[in-house]
Amino acid sequence: MQPPCLQGSNNLWSLAESNSIIELNHFMPKTLEDDLESVDKILDSKRLADFSTALELKTALGKEYIRYALANTLLFDRKQFDYGPGNIAKFGVVGCVIRASDKFERIANLFKANRKKAANEALIDSYRDIHVYMNIIQMVEKGVWR
User: Fold this and answer.
1) Model confidence, pTM
2) Are residues 4 and 54 part of one domain?
């Protein structure tokens, strides 16, 4: 049953009640830790070592970077599923730079105010979004964004 404060409004709750394909659980964000756990289930230490060797990685941090890059790929894929490619295709590199700039401004504002904990989205989420935007820019520049 819809909460009284939302009755009669055209919102996600109404869409969910109408048996649409939208599930409210779909909107629950996953954390970096959740995504790293998913990566670790697939890429155990032997597979990570094999992958690192195949890439000729020389450092332990290079190997660890793979885990974070794959975790951020999971984030990218979830967002792509929701947004589709049109928002980036419409504005390209400039749009990505603006969106990343918004994230940097948010981070800078929190640090200037000596607030290490944000009221809404965790700082790590902004860091991850910036990582994703920078990779999208590379895809746009190489002409693979569709």
Assistant:
1) 0.77
2) no
Closest by CA to 82, choosing from 41, 125, 142, 22, is 22
Of the three residues 82, 99, 116, the one that is the final residue of a domain is 82
What contacts 2, CB < 8 A, 6 or more positions away?
13, 14, 17
d(CA 43, CA 50): 10
In this predicted model, what pLDDT tens digit does every residue of 87-109 receive, in sequence order?
A: 999 999 999 999 999 999 999 99
Tokens of 93: 């590199």
Residues whose CB falls within 8 Å of the CB of residue 103, separated by 6 or more in sequence, listed in order: 126, 129, 130, 133
- Spell out the SS3 assignment of 101-146: HHHHHHHHHHHHCCCCCCCCCCHHHHHHHHHHHHHHHHHHHCCCCC
| Structural domain boundaries, residue 2 | 1-30
